[in-house]
Amino acid sequence: MTTEGTIVLIWSATLVIALLATIVAVLMIVRIIQSAQEIDRLLKGALPAAGGVAANTAAIRELDAVVAAAGPLLEGSAAIRRSSNAILDKVGRVGRLLSGVGGAA
Hints:
Elements: H1 3-56, H2 63-99
């Protein structure tokens, strides 16, 4: 093979390799654009839902106040329970005294 033939062969091989690399790059760019369009479509669908989630979870900030109020409420309910148990016990004693079952305690 002559020097010119070798140069033409190398040049042709380089052009074919460059063409294949260009085709691969174009295909990758097309896939990137398609993926970006899909992401944009999904984002447009999710954006209203995200606004709804933000609106529905805005009350979470108030949970600290609820937790702060829950302690005294729990203490109050425990006091009511103790009082009602004491009343129940006393009413039970009175009932037993009146019915003659119990006797004086």
